Fold:
Amino acid sequence: MKNNSISKIHTDYELCPNCTKRLISKNIYKNKSIKKCFICKNIFDNLNSHLENIFEKILNYDFKTFQIGVTLQPSYLDRDDFIKSKFKIQGVENIKFAVLTELAKKISKTTSTVRKMNQADLIIEIVFKDESCTIRTKPLFIYGRYKKTKRNLRQRQDLCKKCNGIGCHNCEFKGVLNEISVESKISNFFKSKFQCSTVKINWIGGEEQFSLVLGNGRPFFAKLNNPKKRNRILRNYSDHNGISLSELRKLKSQPKGSVPFKSEISATIVSQSLISSSQLKNLKKLERNELQFFSKGKLISKKIYKINYKKTAKNKFNLNLFLDGGIPIKSLIEMQEITPNVSNLLGSPCRCEKFDFKRIEI
Structure:
């Protein structure tokens, strides 16, 4: 920029040191007192109050990287563009970028953290108009397994019937009912440990309320939203109400789509009529056979890889299966929806008294 243009800017407009160095040169600034900068209205002199607000809010957060965004009134950018257009100033950062840079530099220095443009641990949003500051954090993803050793415990929490999961006064804006379930126990554990706002669980299969999950447990993925604590060590966990967690570890992300798995299941089955040992041999036809059934309007094909049975009464037997995940067990035993099925092969309507999961593989 020519010297006469520099002089013209200083003659016609009051500019603070920050705006002068940004628009003209880092090495040129006339040390004169000004009342209020034409462009930024001395916004840089007020950054400390915003920083104090930020530091107060992030005091209890664990983070190594942060991302920051600011919202300025359009008039700041309009005045900045006006000066740059009038004096044909090109290739310099705008006022918003300058404010961001200054804030980020001071946050980084004070907290010994690094500014990151995306996927940062901590996201800071500042609105200068109302001097508000919002803090969010990057989700945490966790893999683990749970065992359920007590019956009469639901896997999932029921949605609030009044708001259908949106959140209302009836459910204390949680979206779910305050019933004890596997989901509530896992969620409460993570909320307490990581101080997150909500937990979203991606289940690898499911079980009925009265089924047990034994052996190595059922795998699951959990997404922890807005965790304040990120550096907590994960260890195995168990409570006194039949739930234990193992193999817990943090992930960079969770798998997209469904995860294929296989299950070993033990079922107790009662037949309406007496059954013979020769009839039970027909169940071997299920082994390595393709099962077909409709789910959500789609034809699904699954397999049973291994089957064993033991007669325990005249019309009762235990059935052990190692099979693809996603097969509805009671339908396999009781209904006509799956072909072939246990009732058809025995020639007698059967009822599944209970079934438990002994092992789950992914």
Observations:
- The radius of gyration is 32 Å.
